[in-house]
């Protein structure tokens, strides 16, 4: 049986222990929140890249993913999109794709961002991506592509498919083929890049600075060989 003095000491020790535990919890929470979350960082990078305009001439809008943003580069202006001719604007978001489920960061698919991105009034829209659709079913890619083409009705559009990044190389042929079929259905040119041998970072998914330069130059060269088209609506 505890005496009153001993009870006070036990209660006091318990209270101190609870206070210490609470302070530790706050400390851990502060450490966890010290930097932005992955999605927050993607938004910050997207905003930074959108503020960078490269080149001069006819206005070009690139809608894309982390490659267009330049994820992994110290200078985002050196992403491959900056190698394209014209006044190039980029609407990119890391992890996004044609399908709504490609990203876990909310409504950031190409379709979700397209109408806002068109505020720059481009003469040409280049949609580039597909690597993040690697695990998405065909119906999800189809739906996202259909919605995107509706957003871009009246615009001159070219679709650029995914390169064969080593980490997702096994999925690229399926996505590449599907995007080419969809582009044909809507009457827009499709540029394959899956044949390119590029230089990748250690994550085997994102490009080095040399890889961005190689990819950008290859896309610019292949775009010169195609005629941009306005998406044709399909009968429902």
Automatic annotation (TrEMBL):
Domain SGNH hydrolase-type esterase: 62-213
Highest taxon, organism lineage: Bacteria
Recorded coiled-coil stretches: none
Record Pfam families: Lipase_GDSL_2
Protein name: GDSL-type esterase/lipase family protein
Originating species: Nocardioides pinisoli
């Amino acid at each position: 049986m505890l005496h009153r003095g001993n009870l006070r000491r036990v209660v006091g020790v318990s209270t101190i222990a609870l206070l210490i535990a609470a302070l530790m919890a706050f400390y851990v929470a502060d450490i966890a929140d010290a930097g932005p979350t992955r999605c927050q960082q993607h938004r910050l990078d997207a905003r930074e890249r959108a503020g960078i305009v490269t080149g001069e001439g006819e206005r070009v809008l690139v809608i894309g993913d982390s490659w267009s943003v330049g994820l992994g580069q110290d200078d985002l202006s050196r992403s491959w999109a900056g190698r394209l001719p014209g006044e190039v604007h980029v609407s990119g978001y890391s992890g996004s794709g044609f399908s709504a489920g490609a990203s876990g960061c909310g409504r950031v698919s190409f379709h979700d961002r397209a109408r806002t991105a068109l505020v720059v009034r481009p003469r040409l829209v280049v949609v580039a991506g597909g690597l993040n659709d690697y695990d998405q079913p065909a119906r999800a890619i189809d739906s996202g592509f259909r919605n995107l083409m509706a957003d871009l009705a009246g615009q001159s559009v070219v679709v650029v498919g995914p390169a064969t990044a080593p980490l997702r190389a096994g999925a690229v042929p399926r996505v590449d083929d599907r995007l080419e079929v969809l582009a044909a259905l809507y009457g827009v040119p499709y540029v394959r890049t899956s044949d390119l041998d590029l230089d990748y970072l250690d994550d085997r998914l994102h490009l080095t600075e040399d890889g961005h330069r190689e990819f950008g130059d290859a896309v610019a060269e292949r775009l010169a060989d195609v005629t941009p088209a306005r998406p044709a609506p399909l009968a429902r």
